[in-house]
């Protein structure tokens, strides 16, 4: 839990922002908390709120949220060697509490201490979950509550794209990352005319494939 504290510098403002933006999009407090408690995934929550505010069909909202969260499948595969002996109930709550920060902390701790027992690994993950997920929910509630005092003529929509840029920019560390980013951006612009955010659903996998191809080529050259 102590090791999780630095991540709160990012999580709490982001959750506050979600509460305010969701309120601005027309949600009430119960709907905001439903998102933060049941979905528990900041990027997909912002995506869903944006699409809902654009009156996109429910299936598009769901598919977009799933597309944004595809990285969780990779996180799960990475954790599998360390937690495969956990029970089905334990795996269920791990899956629920799996976010970027809890994964990063857990996988680094497991690799540094490979002789930990299963109970110790589960306890560590539980510590990250309590320290990170509960503040997200509480800050979302606070953002939605405080946001009710903000006048309607103050637009907050600009905050969402700025937040996504702040999240993505530090992650662009390799050529493959840059290729994936710019191919996805180009695709999103090319398909911008499609309805209900379909352009993003097409552009995102194209960008991921482009980045994967560049990374695979770099690996082949490194082995040559």
UniProtKB/TrEMBL annotation:
Species, as recorded: Paracoccus spongiarum
Protein name in UniProt: AzlC family ABC transporter permease
Compartments where found: Cell membrane
Cross-referenced Pfam families: AzlC
Topological type in the membrane: Multi-pass membrane protein
Keywords: Cell membrane, Membrane, Transmembrane, Transmembrane helix, Transport
Principal localisation: membrane
TM ranges: 6-25, 122-143, 149-168, 175-192
Family of this protein: Belongs to the AzlC family.
């Amino acid at each position: 839990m102590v090791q999780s504290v630095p991540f709160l510098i990012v999580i709490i403002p982001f959750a506050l922002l979600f509460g305010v933006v969701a309120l601005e999009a027309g949600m009430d407090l119960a709907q905001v908390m439903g998102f933060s408690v049941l979905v528990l995934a900041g990027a997909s929550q912002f995506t869903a709120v944006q699409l809902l505010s654009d009156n996109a069909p429910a299936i598009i909202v769901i598919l977009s949220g799933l597309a944004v969260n595809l990285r969780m499948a990779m996180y799960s595969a990475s954790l599998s060697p360390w937690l495969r002996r956990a029970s089905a109930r334990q795996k269920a709550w791990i899956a629920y509490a799996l976010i970027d920060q809890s994964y990063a902390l857990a996988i680094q701790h497991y690799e540094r201490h490979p002789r930990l027992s299963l109970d110790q690994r589960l306890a560590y993950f539980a510590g990250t979950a309590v320290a990170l997920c509960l503040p997200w929910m509480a800050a979302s509630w606070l953002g939605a509550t405080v946001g009710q005092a903000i006048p309607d003529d103050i637009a907050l929509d600009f905050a969402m794209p700025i937040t996504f840029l702040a999240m993505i920019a530090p992650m662009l560390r390799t050529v493959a990352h840059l290729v994936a980013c710019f191919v996805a951006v180009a695709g999103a612009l090319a398909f911008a005319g499609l309805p209900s955010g379909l352009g993003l659903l097409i552009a995102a996998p194209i960008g991921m494939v482009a980045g994967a191809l560049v990374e695979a080529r770099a690996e082949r050259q490194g082995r040559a």
